[in-house]
């Protein structure tokens, strides 16, 4: 398969994903990953495996989503691509969360947060902090939930109106 085929498969996968046909999208992303591997393009192959993971998770296949992430973190780390490395770890964390492996998911979210911090990716860091807060809240860990929410708000680069209001309330001490 050539690069055109890999790109066409990826585009078909995106279209299926947008239609809500998550398992069909996952299959196409897997085929695109194989096409990129065959073309000697491991970075785009790993990107497609991450896309496959997201589609599988949306399709209710958390275990398969976790498996799809295998090896992708290392590919991005070896390439020095911190953002995609962090995304890969985040996808792994989301799959673990989908499997109700809370402690493992939290550990992966923490690793992803650290990578996003190194990469200067405030919005992505904010997203994983929110995910951590949701898990902490499930277990009644209110202090940790608050800290994660605070970090999430602090780190977001393009806050919404609600986030601006919450930041203001935190700054003047009405909300902690």
> So what's the overall shape?
globular
Helix content estimate: over 70%
Assembly type:
single chain
The share of residues in extended strands comes to under 5%
Q: What structural class results from the helix and strand content?
A: mainly alpha
Topology order in helix (H) and strand (E) letters: HHHHHHHHHH
Strand tally is 0
Question: Uncertain regions: pLDDT < 50 for 5+ in a row?
Answer: none
Distance between the termini: 55 Å
**Sheet of most strands:** none
Task: Produce the secondary structure layout.
Layout: H1 3-19, H2 22-38, H3 42-58, H4 62-68, H5 72-79, H6 82-98, H7 102-119, H8 122-138, H9 142-155, H10 161-171
List keywords for this structure.
176 residues; 10 helices; mainly alpha
Explain what this protein looks like in three dimensions.
81% of the residues lie in helices and 0% in strands. It has helices at 3-19, 22-38, 42-58, 62-68, 72-79, 82-98, 102-119, 122-138, 142-155, 161-171. The longest helix has 18 residues, at 102-119. It starts with a helix and ends in a 5-residue tail after the last helix. The mean pLDDT is 84.
């Amino acid at each position: 398969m050539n690069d055109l085929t890999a790109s066409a498969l990826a585009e078909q996968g995106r279209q299926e994903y947008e239609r809500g046909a998550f398992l069909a999208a996952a299959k196409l992303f897997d085929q695109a990953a194989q096409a990129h591997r065959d073309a000697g393009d491991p970075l785009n192959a790993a990107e497609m495996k991450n896309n496959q993971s997201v589609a599988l998770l949306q399709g209710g296949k958390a275990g398969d989503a976790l498996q799809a992430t295998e090896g992708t973190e290392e590919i991005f780390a070896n390439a020095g691509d911190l953002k995609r490395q962090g995304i890969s770890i985040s996808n792994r964390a989301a799959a673990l969360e989908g499997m109700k492996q809370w402690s493992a998911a939290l550990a992966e979210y923490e690793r992803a947060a650290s990578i996003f911090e190194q990469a200067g990716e405030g919005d992505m860091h904010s997203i994983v902090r929110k995910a951590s807060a949701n898990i902490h809240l499930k277990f009644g860990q209110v202090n940790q939930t608050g800290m994660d929410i605070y970090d999430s708000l602090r780190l977001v680069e393009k806050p919404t109106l609600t986030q601006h209001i919450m930041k203001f309330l935190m700054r003047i001490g009405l909300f902690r």
